[in-house]
Write a structure and sequence with these properties.
It comes from Paenibacillus lignilyticus. InterPro entries: 6-blade_b-propeller_TolB-like, Glc/Sorbosone_DH, Quinoprot_gluc/sorb_DH_b-prop. This is PQQ-dependent sugar dehydrogenase. With 402 residues, the chain is mainly beta. The protein is built from 1 helix and 27 strands. It has one helix spanning 10-25; strands at 51-55, 63-67, 79-84, 88-93, 102-106, 120-125, 132-138, 142-152, 155-159, 165-171, 182-184, 190-194, 216-220, 248-251, 256-261, 268-272, 278-284, 295-296, 299-300, 317-320, 327-332, 345-349, 354-360, 366-373, 378-383, 389-393, 397-401. The strands form 7 sheets. Strands 6, 7, 8, 9 and 10 form a 5-stranded antiparallel sheet that branches. The protein is globular, with a radius of gyration of 20 Å.
């Protein structure tokens, strides 16, 4: 994923796309089908899908995510919280989108966003504690996972920048591949996407290094702190016993740009941005090794041929440079407005604007369909309290799948 300021010209966009392709290599309208009660998507008649603007282009400043508080606070049920990469979180009234967006957290004074893939990248609300939020942001040299609390119990949506508590920091050797996603899983733990640290080809070997937090999905318990830390390690984390960094949940990832949990099955879906050949979608398992930088997708990367694939989990789906250059992970749709999509994983390509829906059958086979070809730089997906899907466009708009 890369970002550029809103209001970009066509020339700047093309230059940015060239830079994105270079970063990937070196330095780095149809619909689908309804589900049954098991959560599995089932075949039916195709119907068209469109994008409906919630707020127009230029309203938001480099939006890279939209999350809901998911009804923890009743008054915020219809609110959408948009992550702006320079360092703000703004609240939108999804039921009355013409209402002026409200800044609910401003930490631009500590966020470094000059790099194309740096900035405020993730936001997650505590699922049981109103007025408690966690963010993922970069300084010039580190990633910071921090907690903020509300300024006033009467206004649980407004967070106090001075309330910051840093839970976890880790050094970043280069300016790209930060990951950045935060989300609470059905187990109540906080999951964190960490890219391999950047450059190209993972020169430090972080993806396969069990002592490094880079190139991983991390998992921590933010409800209890031990040994002077503001978090603890879930007992079933694969390296909780000390053979690797205990925060690691899964490893061997390059730049996981957006993951999500299926609210019905609990499965963890993650999109991983490729180097120069394949973009991939993975189902993340506890202790899983997803291959980078031994493999890129299901192909050998280092070495180019004859790599040892034993013990590596291959992606459930990949696509090549003929279809896109930078995958943006989405969500398994569980809303009501688009019954044809229930049970399908909806995702996109950032640079090409293509939106797909994918489903995996019980036998492991995968079906993938183009939903629509958009003209948006799709940085992220979001979901509201009712399970409806939204898309963040880098041009400064928020759109709803309709």
């Amino acid at each position: 994923m890369g970002t550029w300021p809103r209001g970009i010209s066509a020339a700047v966009w093309l230059l940015g796309l060239c830079l994105l392709l270079t970063a990937c290599k070196g330095n780095e309208e149809s619909a689908v089908m309804p589900s049954n009660e098991s959560g599995q998507a089932s075949s039916d008649v195709e119907k068209p899908v469109a994008l409906e603007a919630v707020v127009p282009e230029g309203t938001l400043d480099n939006p890279v995510g939209m999350v809901s508080e998911y009804g923890v606070t009743a008054a915020l049920r219809n609110k959408g919280f948009v992550i702006e990469q320079p360092g703000q979180v703004v609240m939108l009234d999804l039921a009355n989108p013409s209402t002026e967006p409200q800044v609910v957290l401003d930490i631009r004074d500590r966020v470094y966003s000059d790099g194309n893939e740096q900035g405020l990248l993730g936001l997650a609300f505590h699922p049981k504690k109103p007025g408690v939020a966690y963010v993922n942001y970069t300084t010039k040299t580190h990633t910071v996972i921090a907690r903020f609390v509300m300024k006033d119990p009467g206004n649980p949506e407004i967070f106090d920048p001075a309330s910051e508590v840093k839970l976890l920091t880790y050094e970043q050797p280069f300016s790209n591949h930060k990951g950045g996603q935060l989300a609470f899983g059905p187990d109540g733990y906080l999951y964190i996407a960490a890219g391999d640290g950047g450059s190209g080809g993972d020169p430090h070997g972080n993806g396969q290094n069990k002592q490094s937090l880079l190139g991983k999905v991390l998992r921590i318990d933010v409800n209890t702190g031990v040994n002077g830390k503001h978090y603890s390690i879930p007992a079933d984390n694969p390296f909780a016993g000390g053979s690797g960094a205990p925060e690691i949940y899964a490893f061997g990832l390059r730049n996981p740009w957006r993951f999500s949990f299926d609210t019905v099955t609990g499965k963890l879906w993650a999109a991983d941005v490729g180097q120069d050949r394949l973009e991939e979608i993975n189902l993340i398992e506890n202790g899983g090794n997803y291959g980078w930088n031994v493999m890129e997708g299901n192909l050998c990367f280092k070495p180019k041929e004859g790599c040892k694939k034993e013990g590596l989990i291959e992606p459930i789906f990949t696509y090549g440079r003929d279809q896109g250059v930078s995958i943006t992970g989405g969500f398994v749709y569980r809303g009501k407005a688009l019954p044809e999509l229930i049970g399908w994983y909806v995702y996109a390509d950032y640079a090409m604007g293509t939106i797909w829906a994918l489903r995996q059958s019980e036998d492991g086979s995968v079906e993938n369909k183009v939903l629509l070809e958009s003209d948006h730089l799709i940085t992220s997906f979001g979901v509201d309290a009712d399970g409806e899907l939204y898309i963040c466009s880098q041009k400064g708009s928020l759109l709803r799948l309709s």
